[in-house]
Write a structure and sequence with these properties.
The chain contains 14 helices and five strands. By secondary structure, the chain is mainly alpha-helical.
Length: 355
């Protein structure tokens, strides 16, 4: 039986945090049980804003793989892919760029938000908006049915879906009135992938205002120690003054209660007492949340420890190389199909390269 295929990944900007876990990573761990999974290290995209930090990008790439392995990604069951070593992605990016008007790319809300939050103004590189097109190639090179993402990435997936439809209509003759589910059956090269948003689309950071982010210093990392977890949870802002004051159970602290405390009855009791001001302080709730997060992360710390020993980076690099070799087989197949549809099939690439 052919398993449905998924593709998703991360740009190496540092260690992964709880927002990544609830937004996408826990979904990936679950999906590898009954899906053909490809997980992409988007290190090329990291250069769009950090071209002067190439050594840091390499380090962060290895750190993300360690986080993935710690979280439960199994490299024998799933394929870990290094973007810069899959040349088909770069070629497809170029072709897809011809299918998207520039103003459509710049209207992408995720791109606009990144320009604002990173305070790039009008100084961003020419390559920066190209990453939005490149993300379409990252996905479609593997022809997935689904893309597990956080809520903030849904706009990117929608643009990817537009590219797939336009390519299939323009070069494969698929009827624009066709249903998305029928594009491949009707001769399209690319399926129209669907976004799979995680259990919590947007986890607020410990500042109580912004989405959890390393750059905003409001993140709780998957690799944090129990002591660090306790400290960071203790920083969650609620504005409540006393344990007898009725509290707002829609605040950030209770988003964490519902996200990480597994006992549903206990969650209901905490909500009831907190809302009533029934002699329960923020400190008590924070202690329970910290315990729940540490219970979640303890097996991750144990798995990560294997790759923190001398020679651990070599193990990670070997996993990356093995996965990327497998990924190139599929990506080259996709590129050949796309070129054939575009009347660019002049023979296998290997026959055109110097011996």
């Amino acid at each position: 039986m052919t398993l449905p295929r998924i593709l998703t990944g991360d740009t190496p900007t540092g260690r992964l945090h709880l927002g990544h876990w609830v937004g996408s990573l826990e979904n990936r761990v679950r999906l590898q049980q009954d899906h053909e999974c490809y997980f992409l290290l988007a290190n090329m995209h990291a250069f769009t804003t950090r071209a002067h930090q190439s050594a840091d990008i390499r380090r962060d790439t290895l750190e993300i793989v360690k986080d993935w392995l710690a979280a439960g990604i199994d490299p024998d069951r799933s394929t870990i892919v290094l973007q810069t070593e899959v040349p088909a992605i770069a070629e497809l990016t170029w072709f897809f760029a011809m299918l998207l008007p520039f103003n459509r790319v710049m209207r992408n809300p995720t791109l606009k938000t990144e320009i604002e939050t990173k305070e790039l103004g009008d100084t961003y590189s020419f390559g920066f908006p190209m990453y939005a097109v490149g993300q379409c190639a990252d996905i479609l090179a593997f022809r997935p049915a689904f893309v597990p993402v956080g809520e903030d990435q849904v706009a990117h997936i929608e643009m990817c879906r537009e590219v797939a439809r336009r390519f299939d209509q323009m070069y494969c003759g698929v009827d624009p009135q066709a249903e998305d589910a029928d594009y491949e059956r009707l001769g399209g090269v690319f399926p129209i992938p669907a976004a799979l948003v995680g259990r919590i689309g947007r986890l607020v950071g410990t500042d109580g205002k912004n989405k959890m982010s390393k750059s905003l210093s409001n993140a709780i990392f998957l690799s944090d120690t129990p002591k660090q977890i306790k400290k960071r949870v203790g920083e969650i802002f609620t504005g409540r003054q006393s344990m007898t004051e009725p509290g707002d159970v829609s605040n950030t602290l209770f988003q964490y209660v519902r996200a990480f405390i597994k006992d549903g009855e206990r969650v209901k009791e905490l909500e009831r007492r907190y809302a009533a001001g029934d002699n329960i302080g923020d400190g008590h709730v924070k202690a329970e949340v910290a315990d729940a997060i540490n219970t979640l992360l303890e097996p991750m710390r144990a798995r990560r420890a294997e790759y923190e020993t001398p020679g651990g980076d070599d193990l990670v690099i070997d996993i990356i190389r093995r996965g990327t070799r497998r990924a190139n087989e599929l990506a080259e197949e996709t590129l050949a199909m796309a070129k054939r549809a575009m009347s660019l099939d002049f023979g296998p690439r290997r026959d055109l390269l110097p011996m």
